[in-house]
Amino acid sequence: MRACSTRYGLFMSRFIVTAFGPDSYGIVARVTSALAELNCNLADSTMSNLSGHFAMMLVVDGEVDEKSIFHSVQSKCAELNLVVDVKQIDPAASPTLDGDRYVLSVYGTDRPGIVAGICEVLAAHNANIFDLTTRVTESDLLQIYTMIMEIALAEGEDPQLLEMALRAKAELLGVSCSLRAVDSEEL
Amino acid sequence: MPVLQVVQIGDKVLSSVTKPIEVVLDRHRELAENMIETMYDSPGSVGIAAPQVGVSESLFVLDVSGHKKTNICHGLLVVLNPIILSASDPVTLREGCMSVPHLTGDVKRPSKLVMTGMSLDGAKILIETDAFEARALLHEIDHLNGKLFLDRVDGPHAVFKRKRYL
Predict the structure, then answer these.
(1) Residue B161: which of A146, A89, A108 has the closest Cα?
(2) Mean per-residue pLDDT, A14-25
(3) CATH of the structural domain A100-181, one choice from 3.30.70.260, 3.30.1300.10, 1.10.4030.10, 2.60.120.10
(4) Alpha-carbon torsion, ordered B38, B6, B57, B109, to 10 deg
(5) CB-based contact (8 Å) between A103 and chain B?
(6) CA A31/CA B69 separation, integer angstroms
(7) Minimal Cα distance from B8: which residue of A?
(8) pLDDT of residue B1 exceeding 80
(9) Catalytic site includes residue B22
(10) Which residue, among B21, B14, B16, has the nearest Cα to B117 in the 3D structure?
(11) pLDDT the model gives residue B162
């Protein structure tokens, strides 16, 4: 495992820290203050309430080891019933599968296999998922599944072919889907 | 005039491209009257497109009078077979829809719009507008093309569960 060089230190290691548990006040404050006390820096994060459970995924840099992070977070959050995991990662082995960015919307009556079916098509066309959120809502006594994602399409892949394949799969799944280029403006 | 049942997300009629109306018939006039009644009966609603009441034909009604974000206002509009002539100056705002009752989303849409269409008496109409009326018109035109605001949201983090119902 290689150490990484960041603006905060020459020999820092990088970790992925996950923590989740029943939502309550102060989860983010406690987890991040445990990391701050170890002089760790948050390089990236995503945090969200998932059906009443709060989930955190953090990329953390610090001159520490897995055990010290784990024990620090666990002791700081003892009464919050969080499930905590810490894993050291090699920053040099983090591929960036980028390309032209698109937003994909999928929605319709909920059923098992929507995410799997759509994502199989994306994988077959070398479309890399950068971000994905889902929502389940009720409408006319039906459960409606809504999934929005941002994807990057590998160079050489045809977005029109991808869209045709997605529409065909969506038809089979009984949902609607649409793909559009990310609209970014240089200012 | 009856208030019509509004079709909800998940119904195929909402993702189908509507048929243009070649000749205005009595049933189209009756449909428009009922859609207007339904729009005014629904708190917060400023427009309804025919697919939202289960009819896959190119017709919508709209009235943004009194809305706080309205600038130019044409009052009550009944538009058949709309065509966008020009649309510019995009702005992002949060939208909702009677057919997607539990979600809202941030959508970037042009704030200046020039469009044509046909009135219920078969005459050509030209609409030049801006701000909220332009957004509402584009939202309704999307319905006629089988699209919901969910097909235009800015990204994965631009969809929200509705916190407040009007």
Answers:
(1) A146
(2) 97
(3) 3.30.70.260
(4) 90
(5) yes
(6) 42
(7) A139
(8) no
(9) no
(10) B21
(11) 83
